[in-house]
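Is this the right way to post structure tokens for a design question? Let me know if I should format differently. Anyway, here goes:
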């Protein structure tokens, strides 16, 4: 992530505090999704409109070094803001997984690939299936692949 961009913490105090705790502890604290105990990672992205650095905790769905980023927003009718950041700037993304920071390129999974990752996401966090029933949109699954 380019150093000439400014970090703007989330306006949501819960998100802002979790990101700060996660980063400060190198992923040993603040590393689960609220009341579920499901592990999270931190996505660092560039704002689609603001061009400011944004950081967001998302549920950790990973296999063989690739991460699936599920834009569920709890089944809301619209995608989360971070989804637009990743789609707009797919090469300006990093993931912090515990103490590891990984630069990634993001792309949307489609077809059979999406089905495979969606099933893994549901196995990781079963509420995703419930969230899909709450919305008319197909919940996007983005794949974050480490850059060499």
């Amino acid at each position: 992530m380019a150093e000439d961009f400014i970090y703007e913490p989330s306006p949501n105090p819960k998100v802002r505090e979790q990101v700060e705790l996660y980063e400060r502890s190198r992923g040993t604290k603040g590393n689960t999704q609220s009341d579920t105990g499901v592990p999270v990672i931190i996505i660092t992205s560039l704002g689609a409109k603001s061009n400011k650095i944004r950081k967001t905790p998302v549920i950790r769905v990973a296999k063989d070094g690739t991460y699936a980023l599920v834009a569920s927003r709890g089944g809301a009718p619209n995608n989360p803001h971070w989804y637009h950041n990743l789609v707009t700037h797919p090469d300006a993304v990093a993931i912090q997984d515990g103490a590891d920071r990984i630069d990634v390129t993001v792309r949307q999974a489609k077809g059979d690939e999406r089905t495979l990752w969606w099933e893994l996401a549901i196995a990781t966090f079963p509420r995703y299936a419930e969230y899909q029933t709450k919305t008319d949109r197909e919940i996007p699954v983005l794949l974050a692949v480490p850059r060499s």
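Format looks fine. Someone answered above. Worth noting: Strands lie at 32-33, 38-46, 53-59, 61-63, 66-70, 93-97, 100-108, 141-146. The domain at 13-146 is CATH 2.30.110.10 (Pnp Oxidase; Chain A).
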